[in-house]
C-alpha cells in the first residue's frame, strides 16, 4: 500500500474517485468542510442525503460512513463520515478510527482507487490534532483493496504540520 500523501487546499476541488466529508449524524449539511462540499456539489447532494434512511433523525451514527454521488463536484463520489465530538462522544479514538476504516471499506466495496480525506473531527468537533493525525495515518497505511491513492487535503497549516509529524513516525 503506497504511503498516503499530504496536500494543502480545498478538498472540493480535488478530482478523485471520492472525497470524504466530515459530516454529522443528521447528514443534512453544516459548516466547515461539510458546508463547502454541499455548496460545491449543489442541491442534489442534500436531496441524496435526505434519501439516506434515518432512524430518529440519525442517518449516519458516529464512526460510520455513507456514500452518495458527487454531483457538481469533480469527485465522482462523496463519502460522508461522522467523526467523534471531542469531550462528548465516548471512546473518541475508537470512533475516529472507525470513521476512517468505514470510509475506506466503503471505497473498496465500490472498487474506488483514489480517496481524499479532510482531517476528520479536527475542526468543530475539537479532536486534538496530533492524536487525530496519528489515527488517520495508522488506518490509511493498511491495505484497503482497490484503494491505492489516499490523500489528506488539509486546509490549515497547523493541521498540515500535525499530519507531517504523524507520517514521520
Ligand atoms: N477542504 C479541506 N479541509 C477543510 C475545508 C475544505 N474546504 N474546510 C474546512 N476544512 C478542515 C478544517 O480546517 C478542519 O481541519 O476540515 C477539518 C474538519 O473540520 P470541520 O469541517 O469543522 O469538521 P469536524 O471537526 O469533523 O466537525 C464536523 O462540523 O461542519 C460541521 O456538519 C459538520 O456537525 C459537523 C461538524
Automatic annotation (TrEMBL):
Pfam families per record: Macro
Keywords tagged on the record: Hydrolase
Macro domain: residues covered: 1-169
Superkingdom: Bacteria
This enzyme's EC code(s): 3.5.1.-
Gene Ontology molecular function, alphabetical: hydrolase activity
UniProt xrefs under InterPro entries: Macro_dom, Macro_dom-like
CDD domains xrefs: Macro_OAADPr_deacetylase (cd02908)
Membrane in keyword set: no
Name of the protein in question: O-acetyl-ADP-ribose deacetylase
Source organism of this protein record: Enhygromyxa salina
